[in-house]
């Protein structure tokens, strides 16, 4: 390493001297607190085997991270050349040094983006890289990273401890046997790494392989699914199993937050058509609207927190979906209406003290217009943090500006990193802590809150809100 590469100690803070002084003081009180990671997509297999490693630098930083590959693809780099696995047999690059070189050649594309900040923080503060990543430094840095990744201090388990993660929740299909979580529990990690129940593949009638997933749901639950009633019973059985395995939450992804109750005979008729492969698009939309109500009812009964992620039109690029499958960076936000769509669910359960619903949006225009007023009224409703495209310094600032005045901080759910990139967890939480402290410092400078209140609110933002929201 020949050049100095560092990050500003005041990153995420505004330049006003009075605000900066307070922001630094607030941040110092929360910077080293344990990480609560209540929602994300780290595979439990990564942590279930104490000897598991990350593979090569390309395996860790590039191939599985659609934030990275999306940017590179947008500038003309084919995904095959980045080693992204295909499902149609198209050959891909297998030389990980070559993949890393292409990444380094285009690292400048990430300037000014949250991904660029995450990557720089990971390379500098996690892996001790001191030379900026460029075409010329690429292979030296690859060697440095490969050497680190071969050391026992850089296994996933070792970094989990170094990152000071108090609890991490994965996201797991309703039909998952949770074998890795069982292994973690047997090793004494069950309270620190928990599953989350994700039933999308068996609730969305047009999900790929829905019939096969229903058969698997039947096998895993021990319930013969022959009609809607037995289907509900199988889902309840799986939820109970997840809860026994330490789950505190469910997670649901829909295009729109439409909810409406179907009559019992309609549920049965639509489900029967689905079993025979003749369900229509209208059937699927109406069924999903009813099933969100069913899932809310189940959450009120079993206490699992219900998360609802809305507004991503997934797999927008048809040809890439056919070649590579989902989660390759071709998911695009759409405009979302909440007030009318959620009214049936909130009228049924929004006041139920047993129920908790966390909402996530990709339509920022809804924060002040609908989401903050809804959260400011319904006791069961909390707003999740800025998500996906808005998990950024400016996205966090916009969120705090648009939500807190109307909803109040107590009606939000703190922060979660929602990441597949394990090494990015500490930097994502650090950015949130920095931005929230800076925002609170601005409130203090303007005389809207005093510094004692700002300090308490900084602690809420860092850990306490997420712990309360997810019952951790």
Structure report:
With 472 residues, the chain is α/β, with parallel strands linked by helices. The chain folds into 2 domains: 17-50 and 164-469, TIM Barrel (Alpha-Beta Barrel); 54-154, uronate isomerase, domain 2, chain A (Orthogonal Bundle). The chain contains 20 helices and 11 strands. The strands form 4 sheets. The protein has a 4-stranded parallel sheet with strand order 6-7-10-11, with helices on one face. A 3-stranded parallel sheet has the order 1-2-4. It is globular and about 70 Å long.
What is the secondary structure topology, with strand pairs?
Blueprint: H1 17-30, E1 35-37, H2 45-48, H3 57-61, H4 66-74, H5 96-105, H6 114-126, H7 138-149, H8 156-162, E2 165-169, E3 172-173, H9 179-186, E4 193-194, E5 197-198, H10 200-203, H11 210-221, H12 228-244, E6 249-254, H13 264-275, H14 281-302, E7 305-310, E8 312-313, H15 318-324, E9 332-333, H16 343-349, E10 357-361, H17 366-375, E11 381-383, H18 393-407, H19 425-445, H20 451-469
Parallel strand pairs: 1-2, 2-4, 3-5, 6-7, 7-10, 10-11
Antiparallel strand pairs: 8-9
Helix pairs in contact: 1-19, 1-20, 11-12, 14-16, 17-18, 18-19, 19-20
């Amino acid at each position: 390493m020949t050049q100095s590469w560092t990050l500003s100690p005041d990153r995420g803070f505004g330049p006003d001297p009075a605000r900066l002084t307070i922001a630094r003081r607030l941040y110092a009180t929360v910077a080293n607190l344990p990480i609560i990671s209540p929602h994300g997509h780290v595979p439990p297999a990564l942590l279930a085997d104490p000897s598991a490693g990350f593979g090569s630098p390309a395996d860790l930083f590039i191939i599985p991270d659609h934030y990275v590959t999306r940017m590179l693809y947008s500038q003309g780099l084919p995904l095959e050349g980045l080693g992204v696995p295909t499902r149609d047999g198209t050959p891909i690059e297998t030389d990980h040094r070559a993949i890393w070189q292409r990444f380094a050649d285009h690292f400048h594309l990430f300037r000014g983006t949250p991904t660029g900040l995450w990557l720089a923080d990971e390379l500098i503060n996690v892996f001790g890289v001191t030379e900026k990543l460029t075409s010329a430094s690429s292979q030296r840095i690859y060697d440095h990273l490969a050497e680190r990744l071969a050391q026992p201090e850089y296994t996933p388990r070792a970094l989990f401890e170094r990152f000071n993660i108090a609890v991490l929740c994965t996201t797991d299909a309703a039909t998952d046997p949770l074998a890795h979580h069982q292994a973690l529990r047997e090793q004494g990690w069950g309270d620190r790494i928990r599953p989350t129940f994700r039933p999308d593949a068996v609730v969305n009638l047009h999900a790929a392989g829905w019939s096969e997933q229903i058969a698997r749901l039947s096998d895993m639950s021990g319930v013969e699914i022959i009609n809607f009633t037995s289907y509900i019973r199988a889902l309840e059985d799986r939820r109970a199993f997840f809860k026994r395995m330490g789950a505190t939450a469910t997670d649901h992804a829909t295009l729109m937050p439409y909810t409406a109750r179907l009559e019992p005979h309609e549920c049965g008729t639509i489900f029967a058509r689905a079993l025979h492969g003749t369900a229509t698009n209208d059937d699927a939309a109406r069924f999903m609207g009813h099933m969100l109500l069913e899932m809310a009812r189940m959450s009120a009964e079993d206490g699992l927190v219900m998360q609802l992620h809305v507004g991503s039109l997934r797999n927008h690029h048809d040809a890439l979906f056919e070649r590579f499958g989902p989660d390759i960076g071709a998911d695009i936000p759409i405009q979302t209406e909440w007030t009318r769509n959620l009214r049936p669910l909130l009228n049924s359960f929004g006041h139920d003290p047993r129920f908790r619903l966390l909402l996530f949006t990709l339509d920022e225009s809804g924060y002040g217009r609908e989401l903050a007023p809804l959260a400011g009224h319904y006791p069961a409703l909390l707003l999740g943090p800025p998500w996906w495209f808005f998990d950024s310094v400016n996205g966090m600032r916009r969120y705090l500006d648009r939500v807190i005045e109307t909803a109040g901080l107590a009606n939000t759910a703190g922060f979660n990193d929602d990441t597949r990139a394990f090494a990015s967890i500490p930097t994502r939480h650090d950015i949130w802590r920095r931005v929230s402290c800076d925002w609170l410092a601005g409130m203090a400078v303007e005389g809207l809150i005093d510094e004692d209140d700002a300090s308490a609110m900084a602690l809420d933002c860092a850990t306490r809100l997420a712990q309360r929201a997810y019952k951790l």
